[in-house]
Amino acid sequence: MKSATNAYTQESGSETVELNFGHGQKFKRQDQLNRRFLGFLACFVILVLFALVALLFREAWPAIQESGDIFFTDSYWDPAAEIYGGLAFIFGTLVTSIVAIAIAAPVSIAVALFINEVLSKRWGRFIGIFVEMIAAVPSIVFGLWGLFYLAPWVKDTLTPFLKSTLGFIPLFQGPSFGIGIMAASLILAIMIVPTISSICREVFKTVPGHQKEAALALGATRFEMLKLAVLRPSFSGIVGASVLGLGRALGETMAVAMVIGNNPQISSSLFAPAATMASVIANEYAEANSDLHVSALCLVAVTLFIVTFIVNSLARLVVWHNERRHLKKGGV
Amino acid sequence: MLLALSAVIVLAPLFLVFQYVFVMGATSLSWDFFTQLPAPVGETGGGMKHAILGTLYMVALSAVISVPIGVFCGIYLAEYGKGKLASLLRFSIDLLTGVPSIVIGIFAYILVVVPLKSFSALAGAFALSIIILPIVTRSSEEILKLVPQHIREAGLALGLPRWKVTYFIIVKGNLSGLVTGIMLAISRAAGETAPLLFTAFGSNFVNLQPTAPMASLPVQIYTYAISPFEDWQRQAWAGAFVLICLVLGLNLAARLMINGRKLKRKLEKRKAFKAQREESL
User: Fold this and answer.
1) Which of A1-15, A302-316, B101-115, B201-215 is predicted least confidently?
2) Checking CA distances to A282, which of A205, A304, B230, B275 falls within 20 to 30 Å?
3) A105 and A55 within one domain
């Protein structure tokens, strides 16, 4: 707070105009008041965030003391016996998100290229709005659709196909019930496409036009031009976009909770049901009646929070680094 | 071409979802859905009047909480966004955007449900308001930052105090942009399920008291969707249909507002250009 008022006096010297009409002092006081008021609200928001983190840790503390040692090493989760091993949830969250990224990243990069480089401006905007509409659909609707439409499709069409073509890999073995890691990853992939593709479009826009023209002038085909002049310089931006998409996938709750099967186990098959950190909280929190159970779920939430925090900061770092590099280039 | 194929792959699920929801939803939608309370288990019929009202109630309440705070924080970031406090605020907003909604639900549970000793609409609205707060702040900041610096300087040069420049020139002139951001944020809040599961919890009656459990459309869809009764599942589809109309309607309206403004500006420019040319002739 103090630093803010200091900053004000510094700034006011250079930016606001001092008038000798007798209003100067009054205006200055009013401005200071306004500035204080805004600063107070800012402090309030920061405080909310701190409260969020602090309260989560406080609630999770009993579980850390009680079963902190097995939480990260064991996958046996039994609220009735008060044994809380959370490894299966961490595993489920990571696997579904990574598979989702593996599906969504190439597709969304291709869509971003298609909209930016192939389509005319008007059509590009039209398709772009459609792609962004995916982000606006509530996750519960995706969950509903996944449960009644996608899961049966995975069971009846996708699984036999994958088994007959890629069945020798352990990932694609084992019985399929429709609901499971595969269905959850597909839903997640659909949901994160708009995130990745819109950031990729921003990144591709920063590629200067003369670079593309230079590639074409050197005799590159259109495909080679896209590969050499657009994709290669924006590689770090693409990585940042994908990681940001990963951050979104990690925290997604409802759609995943409805199609993943909610079975805390670690399995090598992508068709097996599993559980994620978010889905176990959604399923058990309202019904948890022992204090330790609530606390263990809070520990799950803390873990989820930390994982998403790390992933998001990583993504921001990459994107930010990329932006700065471009600024430097533009300056020269 | 490969790229066109990828666009088809991306848009196919969207159309499939829409087609499925519209077909299933429209066929199970009836007037009763909007005017009736849920029927007891085993009986057909009934509706989701309580859930629709609950969603509107909680979203409105959350907007009342977070829109002023969010807009003021956006103003702070856009106008005074250089100090230490501002960068800390920006970092917090970034962090809040990334927090999974279910974790925010737990936070609301600890902060509101535990002291009040009951699930309540207030807790649900609180959770929703924390979800939309960073969205409102970010969009307000982005929009106010687009205002050219010389407009601020012109206001100051007229001898106005800075706060008057901020509120009566910068904010007032960009009100429609701010409203667009708020609408986008609200459309997000209307579709959230996860944080409401254990804050507002749900109920089977119309309830307008902020301290009692309240039903909401997404949670009601969830409970009905995972139920084994076919009639309830049909109700869930109808609910999804209504929800998607509500959310996408808000979203598209906000987007059209942006585009409409752009169009207006373009027309004005063209007019001015024409007038100028005629003058020169």
Assistant:
1) A1-15
2) B230
3) no
Does A149 reach chain B within 8 Å, measured CB to CB?
yes
Shortest CA distance from B256: residue in chain A: A129
Residues A191, A125, single domain; the answer is yes
Please report the DSSP string for A60-124 in residue order: HHHHHHHHHHHHTT---EETTTTEE--HHHHHHHHHHHHHHHHHHHHHHHHHHHIIIIIS-HHHH
Task: Tell me the residue range of the domain where B246 lies.
Answer: 48-235+242-251
Contact B248 A136 (CB under 8 A): yes
Show the domain range for A206.
94-331
Q: Judge whether B117 lies within some domain.
A: yes
A256/chain B closest Cα distance in angstroms: 11
The predicted model gives B103-128 an average pLDDT of 91
Residue B112 lies in a domain: yes
Tell me the pLDDT band of A327, cut-offs 50, 70 and 90.
low
Q: Does residue A30 fall inside a structural domain?
A: yes
Q: Do A254 and B255 count as a contact with CB atoms less than 8 A apart?
A: no
Mean pLDDT for the stretch of residues A84-111: 90
Band of pLDDT at residue A3, cut at 50, 70 and 90: very low
Pairwise CB contact (< 8 Å): A304 & B222:
no
- CB environment B65-91: b (16+ within 10 A), e (fewer): bbbebbbbbbbbbbbbbebebbebbbe
Two tokens at A239? 């990585």
Is pLDDT of A67 > 50? Answer: yes
CATH of the domain at B173: 1.10.3720.10
Tell whether A118 and A59 lie within a shared domain.
Answer: no
Confidence of residue A331 (pLDDT cuts 50, 70, 90): very low
Task: Give the total number of structural domains in chain A.
Answer: 2
Does residue A315 contact residue A240 with C-beta atoms inside 8 Å?
A: yes
**What's the total number of domains in chain B?**
1
State if pTM tops 0.90. Answer: no
pLDDT in tens, B122-159: 999 999 999 999 999 999 999 998 888 888 899 889 88
Q: For residue B66, is it within any domain?
A: yes
Q: Are residues A126 and A43 located together in one domain of the fold?
A: no
Q: Which residues of A touch B73 (CB under 8 A)?
A: 38, 41-42, 45
- Tell me the backbone φ, ψ of residue A274, rounded to 5 degrees: -145, -165
Candidates B177, B73, B84, B175; CA nearest to B134 is: B73
